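To whoever is on call:

I kicked off a structure prediction for a single chain this morning and the downstream step that reads the tokens threw a length-mismatch warning. I double-checked the sequence; it's 483 residues and nothing unusual in it as far as I can see. Pasting both halves so you can look.
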Amino acid sequence: MKNLNIIKIFTKKHYIEIIKEKYFKLSKELLKTNAIIIALFTLTFLYLCYLSIPALYNNKIIELKLQSEIAKNFKLENVSFEKFSYTFFPSPHYNIKNVIIKKNEGDKKILEIKKMNISISQKNFFKKNIFKINSIKITNSNINLDSMDYIEKLLSESAKNKILIVKSKIFLNDKNNSTFSIITINKLKLFFEEKKNHNNLTLHGSIFNLPFKLNYLSNFYNNKNDLKINFGKIKLNFENKSHLKNYYSAQNQIKFLNSNFITKINNKKNKNIYEFISNESKINQTDFNYSGTINVKPFYFNFNFIVSNLNFQNIIFFNKIFEDILINFFLNNNNLNGKVNIDISDIKKSKYFEKGKIVLNIKRGEFDLSGSEFEIKNIGNIKIRSNQIFTNDEKVNIRLNSKFTIHNREKLYKKFLVSRKNRLNIKNLYYLMDIYPSSKEIIFSNFEIDEKNNEFYQNTTFSINNWQDLRNMFNELLINYDG
């Protein structure tokens, strides 16, 4: 029994020693863990205190420095804003409200910015009232442009800092400060690529309700620029590579549907007049030659096009894409003035049209097609006397007041299968033709034969979808002729 008690006492002492040993080990581990936690907490606290240092800078000095840095980044002299604040979450930056940027004190506003975020470097906040900008983010801004001079100035030097603009608009204004177009900015980025020595501008936005993507590379060391614009909705791609030395020279390429336009441009003779010459351009595999000029002061263009072996179906664009371009880019554009002549020879896939000429005069967005004409093989010619273009619910109606002059009545009557009793001695047919591109509909109305009309002609319209409809219409007119 005595030995058994000794064994029990020994066992208890052994367990106590084991417990003590484990307790001391656990205590040491807890102490180490606590030390780590305290160290991390202390470092975090010190880091947050360090990040808070700019909040202690002199507000007046920082305000002046912010104005100076904004002016340098946007290449303008006059900068003002309502208020600013500093925060270090999620990274150190200044929040600036209601920024106004002008060229000079009395000038009109170029940039109106509701919110600007200026991200700053974390290096050495101990240098009092000194900071270095990493990037600038702009939200909800209006950019007012009455020319491309400011954009050229902005890109003429390396971008000082990365600039990001979102949820903003560019207002394109004329000299009277009237807005003729608005570009919506979803996302715009401007930054300088040191390895390639060029500014890189990318823009995702929309104009005239057409979304587009733009990329512009500007190398001011060798004065070479590359501009690319893609309108995915209407399948239009534009690229322009230019070089400015003693004069401006460029080659641009426009791809639209199955057409490809390649143009060489220069202003060698006059800095305000740009000359354009085509270089192996094609419309649906048809050769397409053109030349012309654009005068920028004042704006006016004059182009001559020569098209041969043209598919007749491509002369009139019966589709929604053509309608969208007409509405969004050309109609009622007060800054659009010019003249276009298109000579068409050897028209293919047409039993009747042989060649034609389209004369287009544009004055302040108003289109005049009078003088345009088409020759009908060995029969006569159609000439446009006047025209009107209507828009309703984003749909276009092109109304042509036309005259059909008959040179060979016998061939005409054979083509239209006119019975001999209705083969009248007529010379001219006058009519209105309404074209609806999106619905591919053509309606004829308001007929006159040799300056004579009757009630039937005034109150009757014909919807034409095919050759049979056209032939029936012509025979109906002859049957009801009372001259």
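Update from on-call: the warning came from a stale cache, not from the record. Cleared it. Sanity check on the structure: The radius of gyration is 37 Å.
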